[in-house]
């Protein structure tokens, strides 16, 4: 039977596996507000992807003494870099997009995040730009979409407020029964986001090499294949096998091309 962490240090270990990722943030004040929001709930890991302005005095002014969170914030140029090491990625979105993902409430997402952390996995919760939210290609990197149930005629939640809601649900679940430590198994953990992204790049290139699309939209095909493999959540060993299959397909396509030109 699963066992709950038996000390606050165990809970701290699990918290350290959760990161909040802000993508293309326009206003530094929202970065400060987000830092304050997660710090009040016991979290400290903040990752920033291509922020318009950071570091910035406005961020520190609105962080309300959560300066350490900002000082330790990791700034990355690309979302893939910020997700490196993450085996579960949850994207916050105010509205449904063309990317069809499982939809979770904040409560369900918090439980899922703690369960993954308890299994030794790194978890990323990603929040999009204040005006546009997460784009389709950013949501395509997620395993599920989290929707805060705001009213339909005014769903414009401030970025820092959205972070606060999610941080609160995570803390509430963490203090309840969500972070149960499962019985150890021999199963490999899912591959992290960086390994998955390299696989998707190889897959896209292979489909081009074997002339798979033939008039079909490559973007649509890749979105569907991303969804397929995000559901499957292959481990690193399985990805190596898939890379081998793709490499052989590329080799055969190259040989066929040479034969055709002979």
From TrEMBL:
The keyword tRNA processing applies. GO terms for molecular function: RNA binding; tRNA (cytidine(32)-2'-O)-methyltransferase activity; tRNA (cytidine(32)/uridine(32)-2'-O)-methyltransferase activity. It is an enzyme of class 2 (transferase). Its EC number is 2.1.1.200. Residues 18-168 form the tRNA/rRNA methyltransferase SpoU type domain. GO terms for biological process: tRNA nucleoside ribose methylation. This is tRNA (cytidine/uridine-2'-O-)-methyltransferase TrmJ.
């Amino acid at each position: 039977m699963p066992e709950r962490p038996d000390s606050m240090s165990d809970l701290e270990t699990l918290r350290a596996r959760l990161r909040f990722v802000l993508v293309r943030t326009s206003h530094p004040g929202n970065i400060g507000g987000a830092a304050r929001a997660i710090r009040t709930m016991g979290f400290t890991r903040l990752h920033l992807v291509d922020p318009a302005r950071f570091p910035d005095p406005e961020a520190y002014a609105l962080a309300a003494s959560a300066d350490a969170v900002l000082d330790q914030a990791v700034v990355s140029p690309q979302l893939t870099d910020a997700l490196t090491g993450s085996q579960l990625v949850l994207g916050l979105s105010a509205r449904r997009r063309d990317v069809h993902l499982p939809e979770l409430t904040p409560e369900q997402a918090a439980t899922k995040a703690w369960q993954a952390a308890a299994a030794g996995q790194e978890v990323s919760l990603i929040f999009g730009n204040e005006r546009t939210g997460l784009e389709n290609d950013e949501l395509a990197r997620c395993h599920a979409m989290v929707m805060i149930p705001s009213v339909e005629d005014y769903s414009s939640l401030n970025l820092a407020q959205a972070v606060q809601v999610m941080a609160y649900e995570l803390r509430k679940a963490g203090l309840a029964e969500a972070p149960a430590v499962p019985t150890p198994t021999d199963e490999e953990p899912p591959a992290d986001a960086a390994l998955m992204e390299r696989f998707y790049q190889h897959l896209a290139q292979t489909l081009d090499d074997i002339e798979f699309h033939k008039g079909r939209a490559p973007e649509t095909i890749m979105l569907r294949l991303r969804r397929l493999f995000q559901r499957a959540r292959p481990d690193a060993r399985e990805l190596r096998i898939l890379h081998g299959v793709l490499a052989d397909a590329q080799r055969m396509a190259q040989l066929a091309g040479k034969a055709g030109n002979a």
